[in-house]
Amino acid sequence: MLLKRNNGPRKLVNTLKTLHPWSLIALLATLILLFGFQGEQILNQPLVIVLLSVPILIQVLFNSGLAYLLNRAVKSPHCVAGPSALIGASNFFELAVATAIALFGFESGAALATVVGVLIEVPVMLFAVRVINSTAGWYERGEGIQSYDECCPPDQT
User: Fold this and answer.
1) How close are the terminal C-alpha atoms of the chain, in Å?
2) Which of 116, 117, 137, 155 has the fewest CB atoms lying closer than 10 Å?
3) Number of structural domains found in the chain
4) Residue 123 phi, psi dihedral angles, 5° rounding
5) Does 131 reside within a domain?
6) Backbone phi, then psi, for 75, in 5-degree steps?
7) Nearest to 52 by CA among 123, 134, 128, 110
8) How far apart (Å, rounded) are the C-alpha atoms in residues 68 and 39?
9) Residue 98, helix vs strand vs coil
10) 29/23 Cα distance (integer angstroms)
11) What is the pTM of this model?
């Protein structure tokens, strides 16, 4: 009896390669439409933008920092702590954008809030990534924490 070979991982990689450019095009098209409909409001209401931005900034920095430090306290490897901190700090604005548009339309205040969320969260998350990557040495010096090479050795197949 011949064993059927598992081609699932290869098929998944091929599917992701095919979908990647289309997903980027869809994301960019959505952002262009949103900014096109909301651009005037963003420029005309700077105080509203600041009032929406400051809590998002505080929340992302606080949650990512707290999650990162808690991961270190429980001795999670850095390759787990970094993504954990970013996932914990994410607001999933892409879901909020879709919901706001579907319920209230492109030109609504809800859509404006989600656009501001995207404008603020993306650069703040990139800053958090930079901090997490640049502190890997400090993180891994913690007692009992596995290094990246111990936790995630290169594939030897």
Assistant:
1) 26
2) 155
3) 1
4) -65, -35
5) yes
6) 65, 35
7) 110
8) 35
9) helix
10) 10
11) 0.69
